[in-house]
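Quick one:
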Amino acid sequence: MLNPYFAFGVPIFLLFLYVVFAIIRKKSKLHYIGFVLLLIATFMMAFSFQVLQGLWTLEDSHSTEQLTNLNYSPNLLWLPLILGGVLAIINLWRGVKRVRSFRDGSN
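Output:
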């Protein structure tokens, strides 16, 4: 799970998907695309947290040999988690604003 192609490749692919759906959201009138963006962001955050848990398990088992073979700084694993969290918060805020606008428009 700590293979760099897996640990960083999946978040990069999810970020690519996020950008594609963000472009589709801007160019179309589909209302559910915002929810798809939220799902992608939360999946990136959950996946990154799971990768971090794998790192923490290695650290707890004192496997210094495996930790030295990572070929990247373990601190880089925080970047996809933080990025996913920020994107999730942005999309939650957009969703709350949309629900408020529907509620205000219906009165």
